[in-house]
Structures are given as C-alpha cells and as structure tokens.
Amino acid sequence: MTPRAVLIGPPGAGKSTIGRRLARALDVDIFDTDVAIERETGRTIPEIFAHDGEPAFRTIEEDVVRRALLEQDGIVSLGGGSILSEATRERLAGHTVVYLEISVAEGLKRTGANDSRPLLAGGDPRQKYRDLMRRRRPLYRKVSTIRVRTDGRSPARVVQQLVAKLEP
Ligand SMILES: Nc1ncnc2c1ncn2[C@@H]1O[C@H](COP(=O)(O)OP(=O)(O)O)[C@@H](O)[C@H]1O
Ligand SMILES: O=C(O)C1=C[C@@H](OP(=O)(O)O)[C@@H](O)[C@H](O)C1
Ligand SMILES: [Mg+2]
C-alpha cells in the first residue's frame, strides 16, 4: 500500500485544502498528518508547541508520517516542517511527492489571518516566513517529484493541474 501522492510545501501553500479537494476529485481518502496528530494526542498543535516544545512535536510528527507512508493509499498532506526530519526525507524516496510552491508574499497573506501556526507567531511574521523558506526550499525541492505553482491560482485550478499530472 502506498499513497497516491504526498503533498509538501510551506505553511499556506494549500497542502490541507488542496489535499482534501484532490482526494475528492480522485475519489480516494485524505490523511492530513496535522489532523492525525491532534486526534492521537487529544491536543491542538499550538498546545503541543506551547507545553512540550517544537522538538517534542517533531518526534510525534515523524512517527505519524512514518505510519502514514506505510498505511495510506490515498492523498497524504504533511505539515510544512515535516521534511526537516532526515528520516522522513529518506522515507519519502520512491513516493510521488508534490511540492506546492508559493511565494513569500502570498504565503504570508494566506497564513496571516489566524494564529493556528505557532512557528509564525510572535515577532515579525515576514522575517520568520523568509527564514523558514530559505532553510526549507532546498529540502522541498530535493524530496519532490512534481512541482506545482499555486500563486494566483484557485484551489480548483491547482487540483485540475494535479489530476492531469497524476493520471496514470
Ligand atoms: N490556491 C489557493 N488560492 C487561494 N487560497 C488558498 C489556496 N490554497 C489554499 N488557500 C487558503 O490558504 C489558507 C491556508 O491553506 P492550507 O490548506 O491550510 O495550507 P497548508 O496546509 O499548506 O498550510 C486557507 O485559508 C486556504 O483556504
Ligand atoms: O511549517 C511548520 O513547521 C508547521 C506547519 C503546520 O502545518 P501547515 O504546513 O499545514 O500549516 C503545522 O504542522 C505546525 O504548525 C508546524
Ligand atoms: Mg495544513
């Protein structure tokens, strides 16, 4: 069993939104690792970050992603920072991995309106997002097998392009 596609990219790229819509279009299941982490721990992601810290969150995330890659056969949407784990990057080899690309400006617009992402909270969000992208962009590129730009494209359009690219 292997996922039809694994979605990666920074916060706001649309992994959760596109994941749900793509799964519906392909008539397969959606598995969002952030949703699974909240379900399994019974806590929200901001709570986990606040009480246990980011390293503890990453440990839980790595294990949830590991199992998802083994057990899921639909669309798997990862959290934006999951590719920071070298073990996860190695496990992604051989999978269909879609990098949802987004500019810093557009990513900030999409994530700015809520405080559900602890990594961007506090301080200057623009600087935080830029630093995050500088560190992660090479990793997203390295582990992906398909790249799709999402700036100025509606979710419906992104899904349409992905369906065409994923067609067997
Ligand atoms: N292609 C898109 N165009 C415009 N808004 C989008 C697009 N994709 C996602 N969004 C919006 O951006 C926000 C973040 O999307 P989300 O799917 O949670 O991103 P991620 O899971 O990658 O962090 C949501 O409000 C969503 O509706
Ligand atoms: O980029 C990150 O490090 C994170 C992104 C979030 O998911 P989204 O990418 O779906 O926003 C979530 O996993 C957590 O807040 C950490
Ligand atoms: Mg998400």
UniProtKB/TrEMBL annotation:
Its cofactor is Mg(2+). The keyword Nucleotide-binding applies. It is found in: Cytoplasm. Keywords: Amino-acid biosynthesis, Aromatic amino acid biosynthesis, ATP-binding, Cytoplasm, Kinase, Magnesium, Metal-binding, Nucleotide-binding, Transferase. InterPro entries: P-loop_NTPase, Shikimate/glucono_kinase, Shikimate_kinase/TSH1, Shikimate_kinase_CS. GO terms for biological process: amino acid biosynthetic process; aromatic amino acid family biosynthetic process; chorismate biosynthetic process. Substrate binds at D34, R58, G80, R136. Coiled coil: none annotated. It catalyses: shikimate + ATP = 3-phosphoshikimate + ADP + H(+). Binds 1 Mg(2+) ion per subunit. PROSITE patterns: SHIKIMATE_KINASE. Mg(2+) binds at S16. Its EC number is 2.7.1.71. Pathway: Metabolic intermediate biosynthesis; chorismate biosynthesis; chorismate from D-erythrose 4-phosphate and phosphoenolpyruvate: step 5/7. One of its GO terms (cellular component) is cytosol. It is an enzyme of class 2 (transferase). ATP binds at G12, A13, G14, K15, S16, T17, R117, R153. It holds the Pfam family SKI. GO terms for molecular function: ATP binding; magnesium ion binding; shikimate kinase activity. Monomer. Belongs to the shikimate kinase family. Catalyzes the specific phosphorylation of the 3-hydroxyl group of shikimic acid using ATP as a cosubstrate. This is Shikimate kinase. It comes from Rhodococcus spelaei. The gene is aroK.
